[in-house]
Design brief:
By secondary structure, the chain is mostly helical. 76% of the residues lie in helices and 0% in strands. It is built from twelve helices and no strands. It is globular and about 60 Å long.
């Protein structure tokens, strides 16, 4: 969100589409190249595999990614990401576990459920801090911090974003045959998930590109892509590329992290929740740095910090 403020003379849909080219196509493709075994090609690796299901989940996730951006637009980085990622954390962690046959009410499944519940508790506390902020701030202060602030609309969009964004992890799970094929071919296990990530992000790009181009036509903003001075165009592409790299790095890191959890089904399942918790923590840190919480009051900040502390505790529970 901070990098989007560096974009000049482009509408939101222009920025979102161009950064999506980097985040969902270019960098995932480069990351997938790290996985290709010797004497094999990426297309050869994917050619005999089930690629339709991960892409389909990616299309659904694309709806979440699209509304995720809108949730931050209406609620700001801190509250928008907190609600979206909290919902995404619960659905994205528990649904794959349920589909795999894990019993969530006994043994390791219960530990996984407990970890997710603590995560949701932390996010709920952060959400409460957001509601306190909304009560304590005047309309002028809200608009100063978040230009398009709209609490009710933002909450609905953030919940939709969270549910649909959980499809990303479902997409990763549906590409298990590709993951195993890459490992069997001698690929580095640290990067073995990258081709599946590429398929999911490709599906997401389809959804987001369709929406952005629709908005370009509707708002007559197609000409904005090139109707800027060369220096501005270079600036915009540079910051879109940086935004795309930072976005992709979270899932590049997720793939590496999952490789270390392969011997622990609980930690493997909980890895998605860990990623979402860290996203919430750092998004709120960014929110503080960007002064989105300015004028919220000391009580509100104390509640926010408490919620972040609970999230940190949630990361420890599955390790028990």
């Amino acid at each position: 969100m901070y990098l989007s403020k560096k974009i000049k003379n482009w509408s939101w849909e222009c920025f979102w589409l161009v950064q999506g080219v980097f985040a969902w196509l270019i960098f995932p493709f480069l990351g997938a190249q790290l996985t290709v075994p010797e004497r094999e090609t990426l297309f050869g690796l994917l050619g005999t595999s089930n690629i339709a299901t991960p892409i389909f989940h990616g299309v659904l996730w694309g709806v979440g990614g699209l509304t995720f951006g809108l949730s931050m637009r209406y609620l700001g980085v801190a509250l928008g990401q907190s609600i979206s990622l909290g919902t995404c954390s619960a659905f994205g962690t528990l649904l794959p576990a349920i589909f795999s046959g894990m019993d969530l009410f006994s043994g390791s499944g219960l530990l996984l459920l407990a970890g997710v519940c603590v995560t949701l508790a932390g996010i709920a506390v952060i959400g409460y801090a957001g509601s306190l902020r909304a009560k304590n701030m005047s309309e002028e202060e809200k608009r100063a911090a978040i230009k398009d602030f709209a609490l009710t609309k933002g909450l609905l969009v953030a919940l939709l974003a969270g549910v649909m964004s959980a499809c990303f992890n479902l997409g990763l799970e549906s590409g298990s045959d590709i993951l195993e094929k890459a490992k069997a071919g001698g690929a580095n296990e640290l990067f073995a998930l990258n081709p599946v990530i590429l398929l999911v992000t490709t599906g997401g790009f389809i959804t987001n590109a369709a929406y952005c181009l629709f908005q370009n036509i509707k708002n007559s903003t197609l000409k904005q892509y090139l109707a800027v001075p060369a220096q501005v165009l270079t600036n915009n592409i540079l910051f879109c590329g940086l935004a795309g790299l930072l976005w992709y790095s979270q899932f590049f890191g997720l793939g590496i992290g999952k490789s270390f959890f392969s011997a622990s089904p609980v930690m493997l399942a909980f890895s998605w929740s860990i990623l979402m918790s860290l996203n919430v923590i750092f998004s709120n840190i960014w929110g503080i740095l960007l002064k989105e919480w300015k004028g919220a009051g000391s009580k509100t900040i104390a509640v926010l910090v408490t919620g972040m502390a609970i999230l940190i505790i949630s990361l420890i529970i599955p390790n028990l």
